[in-house]
Amino acid sequence: AEYVIKNIQWTTGSNFTVERGRQQIEELISTWEVHESWLHWSEFLHEEELQYSKRYHYQVRWSIPTRRKPIPRATASVYFVIEISKIKPATSPVEVFFTLESSRLIHRPEQCRFREKWLKDIIENKTILMERL
Fold first, then answer.
1. Residue 122 half-sphere exposure, CB side, CA atoms within 13 Å?
2. DSSP 3-state assignment of 10?
3. A cellular component term (GO) from this record (predicted)?
4. What span, in angstroms and rounded, lies between the C-alpha atoms of 108 and 53?
5. Of 16, 91, 102, 111, which is the most buried if we count CB atoms within 10 A?
6. Rounded distance, CA 60 to CA 121, Å?
7. Distance, CA of 133 to CA of 18 (rounded, Å)
8. Strand 76-85 to 53-63 pairing
9. Which phi and psi angles does 24 have, rounded to 5°?
10. DSSP helix/strand/coil, 15
């Protein structure tokens, strides 16, 4: 069976607000296949003015708190950018891409299946590093 990448209907440039962007990122995350033990928190970081577009940067921080360790030793961050073109019509949907902490690879929601393993690997690598220090 072939996997169908889940995406959402992104807002247009004219309807975009910082809070709407955060809500849509949450909506996208709800389509990801991650175990219910993962908790996340999203926040707006900053706005970036470019020649032909405006970029809005967000961070989503992930962890797995447990009863024994309610404050996790490490978290994993996913960084989102919502880009609004100054050239395309305001009725065009915003462009969205994300990167994982410690990675330069740029993912597009409509082209990529999110993997829970990516979050696990980030936390595992941080934990190993802390134990070595």
1. 18
2. coil
3. cAMP-dependent protein kinase complex
4. 17
5. 16
6. 16
7. 39
8. antiparallel
9. -70, -35
10. helix
Alpha-carbon dihedral angle through residues 33, 39, 43, 48, given to the nearest 10 degrees: -40
Structure tokens given for 107: 């993912």
Identity of the amino acid at 65: P
Q: What is the largest CA-CA distance in the chain?
A: 52
Domain-wise residue ranges, the chain: 18-132
Long-range contacts of the stretch 15-21 (C-beta < 8 A, 24+)? 16/56, 16/82, 16/84, 16/94, 18/44, 18/47, 18/56, 19/44, 21/56, 21/58, 21/82, 21/94
Q: Tens place of pLDDT for every residue, the chain, 133 residues?
A: 566 778 799 999 999 999 999 999 999 999 999 999 999 999 999 999 999 999 999 999 999 988 888 888 899 999 999 999 999 999 999 999 999 998 999 999 999 899 999 999 999 999 999 888 8
Which pTM was predicted? 0.92
